Amino acid sequence: MPYDPTKLADWQIAEEAEKNMPKPEEWVDRLGLQKDEIIPMGRVCKLDFMKIIERLKDKPDGKYIEVTAITPTPLGEGKSTTSLGLIEGLGKRGKNVGGCLRQPSGGPTMNIKGTAAGGGNALLIPMTEFSMGLTGDINDIMNAHNLAMVALTARMQHERNYTDEQLQRLTGMRRLDVDPTRVEFGWVIDFCAQALRNIIIGIGGRYDGYMMQSKFGIAVSSELMAILSIVTDLADLRKRLDEITLAFDKTGKPIYTKDLEVGGAMCAWMRNTINPTLCCTVEYQPVMVHAGPFANIAVGQSSIIGDRVGLKLFDYHVTESGFGADIGFEKFWNVKCRLSGLKPHVSVLTTTIRALKMHGGGPKVVPGLPLPEEYKKENLELVEKGIPNMVHHINIIRKSGMNPVVCINKFYTDTDEEIKLVRKAAEEAGALCAVSEHWLKGGEGALELADAVIEACEKPTDFKYLYPLEMKLRERVELIAKEVYGADGVAWTPEAEAKAKMLESDPKYDDFMTMMVKTHLSLTHDPTLKGVPKGWVLPIRDVLIYSGAKFLCPCAGTISLMPGTSSNPAFRRVDVDVKTGKVMGLF
């Protein structure tokens, strides 16, 4: 240790590190757990969080550290790698440290982005299990979600085929009279399957379902994943699963999962998902995995449950948010922390020189193609022009009262002068700054980052939300657009504004969280606009209602719940050694 990531692929590093990976029973002693607080599942285990929380309820929480990023390029800027590197660096400093990351979706794992296991010597293991389903949480969510659609479409078929008297006699149920043009829910699958975005179902005879337009989303965009991210226990999960809006009837009244008596069965499918799965870094620090990605639609955070457990088990607990600070951190700040009641100490802003060059006007980066030369050679002009994007994200973090630490995730192409320029700008903007080489050197390469985070954790904080819950939906959106994104204002389509007014007038939505929906590739709604655009207005075209999660989701621009698979996807390089059964070719 460390391994040589210039010669070994990530899956090869993982294979070597997994030879000495702690067994589930070893974590009992290492983490001070009781034997009945772990649930072994193959090479990993789940943690029985209710037992742990109850036993440690009076123990003070550790330091709470969040990891976010500047506006990413299409290749990503190593946020998970930075989270793991920081955990390893704090471990090298002798700290009792752990973390909680999100489980990767099969969509990006088999597409361009690849697995979210980190990389090099800042890697999560067991990598294959982590990348390909782990303990089945996403599959359980898929089954529960699709069961709700089975219940709804079957009910629509039976209501069409039977009279009110027959329906009552056969099923004991009243007629719901679903409006087929106002079915809000769709189906989910955990791949990037653009061919399923818009479909027609029920083709055939009267016993082949109800013919109507329908849709698929990627599994991690499901409202059920959002619910898993924020629940406090199994009872909370069960309650929320009854309150999901599936459709509207022909008078405009919402039809909930409880109207179809399906919430209990959905909870049965998801009963095991509430316990985090315990994995570790290649340097064997503990890392929980709980909830999933998709921060531009859902909450995009590792779970509240995982953070509550980590803050009791560890003196330093690291969690991550999806995409840039304008999306993932804003939701961490104003939604996750509000729901959990937890107050964080530090936010680490992952930054790369190549991303700053892109925001400074560098050429387009295309996943799967070689990086243009501008990103491989020193170019201080592009870096300087891109620095305002980093400063903008620092200012977002500072608005929360948290302490920002800029992590320059170093690549071999970065020069000393480029790094010096970024460090100076970060410090002038009020952040601590550290260069980290965790990919190449593991914890040894993250010592400067670890020291900066330790220092920041000891500084006072004045954590505060951007807006009070009493603020109306349209006012919240205006404030987020101006204060977080840098917009001049908001433009609502007539349909979206009418929906917003309806929601504002109904008291049952007063305590719903505001979950903004926009592209992650720009501070604006337009993914082609890099840097810190000026003189623009945020368009809102719709507001999605996630009544189980209690989210209202204003949609800026055109966002799809189903990404597409590229022309050169990662699955082309994944295979199995038929002699050993080992998976090869994962990033």
Walk me through what this model shows.
The protein is of the alpha/beta class. Helix content is 36%, strand content 19%. Strands 1, 2, 3, 4, 5, 6, 14, 15, 16, 17, 18 and 19 form a twelve-stranded mixed sheet that branches. The two termini are 19 Å apart.
How is this fold's topology laid out?
Elements: H1 10-17, H2 24-31, E1 38-41, E2 44-47, H3 49-55, E3 63-69, H4 79-92, E4 97-101, H5 106-109, E5 118-119, E6 122-125, H6 127-131, H7 137-161, H8 164-171, E7 178-183, E8 187-189, E9 199-201, E10 212-214, E11 216-218, H9 223-230, H10 234-241, E12 245-249, E13 254-256, H11 263-270, E14 277-281, E15 286-289, H12 304-313, E16 316-320, H13 325-340, E17 346-351, H14 353-359, H15 380-399, E18 403-409, H16 416-428, E19 432-436, H17 438-441, H18 447-457, H19 473-485, E20 489-492, H20 494-505, E21 513-514, E22 537-546, E23 551-556, E24 575-576, E25 583-584
Parallel strand pairs: 3-16, 3-17, 4-15, 4-16, 8-11, 17-18, 18-19, 20-22, 21-23
Antiparallel strand pairs: 1-2, 2-14, 5-6, 6-14, 7-12, 9-10, 12-13, 14-15, 22-23, 24-25
Write a compact overview of the structure shown.
With 587 residues, this protein is α/β, with parallel strands linked by helices. It has 20 helices and 25 strands. Helix 7 runs antiparallel to helix 11 and helix 13 runs parallel beside helix 15.
Shape: globular
Helix proportion of residues, in percent?
A: 25-40%
Structural class: alpha/beta
Write down the overall mean pLDDT: 94
Strand content: 15-25%
CATH topology of one domain: Formyltetrahydrofolate synthetase, domain 3
Largest sheet: 12 strands, mixed
Using the 3D structure, state the CATH architecture of one domain: Roll
Radius of gyration in whole Å, from Cα? Answer: 24 Å
Keywords: ATP-binding, Ligase, Nucleotide-binding, One-carbon metabolism
Family: Belongs to the formate--tetrahydrofolate ligase family.
Protein name: Formate--tetrahydrofolate ligase
Enzyme class: ligase
